[in-house]
Amino acid sequence: MIPTVGRDVLGRVIAALLATDQFGADQLDAGATSPLVEVVVVADRARPDVERAVGRSNPGGDERVHIDDGPGRGASWARQAGLEAVHGDLVLFLDDDVVPRAGLLAGHCSLHAVAAGRVVVGYMPVAAERLACSATAIIYDNDYKAECAAFDSDSEHVLRGLWGGNVSLRRVDAVRVPQADGSHAFRWREDEEFGFRCIRAGLGGGVSRDLAADHWFERPVDGYLRDAADQARAGRHLAEVYPDLFVATGPVHQTFLDRTLRTVAAVPVVAPGLRRVTEAVARRYGDGVPTRARVRAVVLARFFAQTEAARRG
Prior knowledge:
five-stranded mixed β-sheet, globular, alpha/beta, three-stranded parallel β-sheet, about 50% helix
């Protein structure tokens, strides 16, 4: 199931899901192209764009693909709307910029076959093509891989730090723990909040790097910094609502310069001016072919944006 606003890469996602190499030969019925699969695309807005993207990937009108309308309230609400249209016993939630590699569907099915009551998380590093042209993609990928390392070392962290985009549940569990909780306060951290509710519902987490997909992450610096501020505000609310589950995380990698500037940023007289200059530089020069300086500028600007957002609430 794919919530979408009609991004161009959506066509690749659908084509990959319909490919026969998603399943082993022993799972195919005689004469069939795949086991029973339905691809539910939820157009949360821009329905004409969604229809064009679906049409390009499905020119023959494969009946396994159908489009439903979302409520226009964001990804979690769109997922919930799509869930109500799903008929199968297993639901795979994919983001509309996450392109499955071969065997993804079969892998998710296999892991659910050996244990019930699990939220299964697949691997989705940023596509190499995006890493070559975007500083924000590099930063996102570094953060994501650091989370994956935490998943590998501590299975309980899978749901405490749930990273959506390539996640499956049995339908009965997905119905029991809705995707949308009725609040907009968790925007940009709704995956974590969903994971917390799964824990409270008694579900367990599972993760496998074999369930792989390529994330075609794309976000200009200006939007990326706005998102970062929203994440910080949502983090404060998560800590208030789930004090027993929320764990604050800091930056993964820091150079000496990073640590020095963060120390200086704690000085009230200096911080406002330093924040404005850093964010202005990142917005002006952060987009384009990534360099070490560009990446560092955006990382520091994100720190200031999140610090200020968390302080103000």
